[in-house]
Structure to design on (562 residues):
């Protein structure tokens, strides 16, 4: 067999330093604006960001950090955190963003598992660092992201970020790295068991940034200003800190204040055109805007993902405020972008209701990701928009194996099983119906908890709702709605249950509804259904009591829906 004819183009590796180098050289004066922990607004350019990232790289090298070693961050969205994104990875070390909202024991476990050499932290996390330091003996130093005048009083001896940078001249050339070397490390939130690490490569992160910038993804350009509300400690803020320098987009970083008023004021002051975040954040923003009677003057579109965007929220953004919602689905193991709800030419000519039905789904994949749904036997299921299956994905920014779990690949025949249950319609639009462990199995059929939650929050008196499975002697499981009312709103259990009539198949109708003051959330803002199920473990549905004989006699035959 003759050797393949190799192409004759430059073999320039895809590295993260090339993103900030490009932005500094070709979008040098584009702005990065940060609301600082210190309280003020900080403003500088990509040119200055690269210069300081180089100083950080020099400082870490001087501290003895070697390529491949991990440097942790415990920080909000801000310019110093951004410098870590490029300064740490630029010389081959790995930027390990840690979620500070996890329990301290979990954070310590993650720091030790990642074997972080240094940890950069925002001064708001000083107390957390004091708790962590004795539990993390392998960390050589904790670096406070501030200047000397803002160093907090702490038990732990810490280094000062600005002092470290000031000792370096920034005269540093980014080294050429192997594009397959590790660049970033993020841990899954680990709602069950220990968190697992996803170790990205320079190549996967750059390809992900390219795809994430495309018109049918975030559609970023040098004319945009983007405010990522999604934290830089959650899957690299969905790749925005990489995509923004790639496209020369103005970057607005909101710091720690993510309440509706703070976000709204920053968006208005900085002319933000695009934003991105989880539904809970947008709940706060919309509630503030409604109360204050204010409107966006520049916001054009917002990406909603991380958990399902309720159609009611989508409607409010679009109908009341003229802001386009892009519903996105992804996960830590996918860097995270997988699908986005953008219509094609033909779909955008369909009647408005048909367009809306599509846009409520999680959308179609971007180039780089392939997906399929499979049945229990692993057979591929049809894209008919009705058949539920386990969602599997693959692509160059999808995980191959977890960090430091070298044995035991998570893949099934080369595909990554996401743990999500979904339908795919003939348009190729994905609709996530559940996490596989949250699906409600009634009479051998599956009921989508997300679909029922979306209906509940469409009720004008409901602020938030979760739908969980409750044990049932006849059907095995039946849906229970656990809802939080809007402040001052009144609705009865019967009224809420009646609200579902005609909106879903009869056998999907929830068996009961209860009201609570608040719902448990994970550190990334998702409903913590495991905890909720534990809370309601002994809850007996009225429909279960109505079953003749012993309500929980497991010897009874389980009924099947017609
Ligand atoms: P994480 O790795 O923390 O980003 O969580 C990923 C998981 O969040 C996915 O596997 C889904 O279960 C869920 N998720 C993310 N985006 C969406 C969405 N738009 N709709 C429904 N679930 C979502």
């Amino acid at each position: 067999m003759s050797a393949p004819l190799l192409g004759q183009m430059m073999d320039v590796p895809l590295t993260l330093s090339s993103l900030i180098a490009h932005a500094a050289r070709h979008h040098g004066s584009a702005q990065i604006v940060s609301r600082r922990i210190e309280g003020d607004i900080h403003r500088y350019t990509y040119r200055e960001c690269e210069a300081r990232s180089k100083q950080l790289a020099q400082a870490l090298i001087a501290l003895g950090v070697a390529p491949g070693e991990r440097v942790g961050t415990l920080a909000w969205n801000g310019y110093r955190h951004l410098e870590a994104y490029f300064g740490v990875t630029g010389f081959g070390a790995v930027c390990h963003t840690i979620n500070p909202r996890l329990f301290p024991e979990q954070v310590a476990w993650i720091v030790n598992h990642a074997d972080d050499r240094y940890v950069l932290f925002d001064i708001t996390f000083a107390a957390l660092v004091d708790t962590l330091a004795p539990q993390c003996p392998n960390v050589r130093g904790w670096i406070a992201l501030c200047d000397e005048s803002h160093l907090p009083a702490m038990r732990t001896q810490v280094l000062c970020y600005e002092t470290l940078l000031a000792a370096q001249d920034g005269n540093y050339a980014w080294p050429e790295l192997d594009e397959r070397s590790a660049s970033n490390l993020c841990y899954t939130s680990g709602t069950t068991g220990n968190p697992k690490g996803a170790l990205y490569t320079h190549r996967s992160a750059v390809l992900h940034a390219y795809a994430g910038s495309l018109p049918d993804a975030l559609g970023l350009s040098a004319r945009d200003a983007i405010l990522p509300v999604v934290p830089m400690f959650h899957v690299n803020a969905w790749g925005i800190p990489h995509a923004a320098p790639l496209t020369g987009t103005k970057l607005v970083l909101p710091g720690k204040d993510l309440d509706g008023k703070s976000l709204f004021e920053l968006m208005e002051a900085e002319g933000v055109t695009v934003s991105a975040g989880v539904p809970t954040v947008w709940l706060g923003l919309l509630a503030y805007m409604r109360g204050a009677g204010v409107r966006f003057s520049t916001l054009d579109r917002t990406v909603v993902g991380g958990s399902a965007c309720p159609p009611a929220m989508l409607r409010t953004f679009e109908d009341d405020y003229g802001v386009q919602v892009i519903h996105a689905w992804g996960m830590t193991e996918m860097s995270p972008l997988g699908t986005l709800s953008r219509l094609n030419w033909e779909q955008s000519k369909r009647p408005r209701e048909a367009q809306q039905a599509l846009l409520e789904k999680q959308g179609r994949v971007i180039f780089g990701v392939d997906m399929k749904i499979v049945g229990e036997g692993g057979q591929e299921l049809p894209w008919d928009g009705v058949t539920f299956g386990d969602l599997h994905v693959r692509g160059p920014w999808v995980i191959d194996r977890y960090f430091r779990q070298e044995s035991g690949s998570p893949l099934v025949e080369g595909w990554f099983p996401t743990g999500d249950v979904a339908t795919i319609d003939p348009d190729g639009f994905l609709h996530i119906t559940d996490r596989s462990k949250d699906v409600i199995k009634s009479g051998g059929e599956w009921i989508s908890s997300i679909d029922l939650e979306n209906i509940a929050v469409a009720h004008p008196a409901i602020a938030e709702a979760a739908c969980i499975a409750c044990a049932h002697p006849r059907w095995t499981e039946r849906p229970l709605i656990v809802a939080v009312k809007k402040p001052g709103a009144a609705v009865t259990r019967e009224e809420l249950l009646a609200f579902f009539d005609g909106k879903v198949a009869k056998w999907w109708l929830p068996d009961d509804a209860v009201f609570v003051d608040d719902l448990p959330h994970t550190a990334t803002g998702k409903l913590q259904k495991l905890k909720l199920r534990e809370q309601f473990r002994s809850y007996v549905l009225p429909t279960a009591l109505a079953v003749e004989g012993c309500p929980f006699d497991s010897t009874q035959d389980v009924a099947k829906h017609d």
Remarks:
- The domain at 438-545 is CATH 3.30.300.30 (GMP Synthetase; Chain A, domain 3).
- Confidence is low (pLDDT under 50) at residues 549-558.
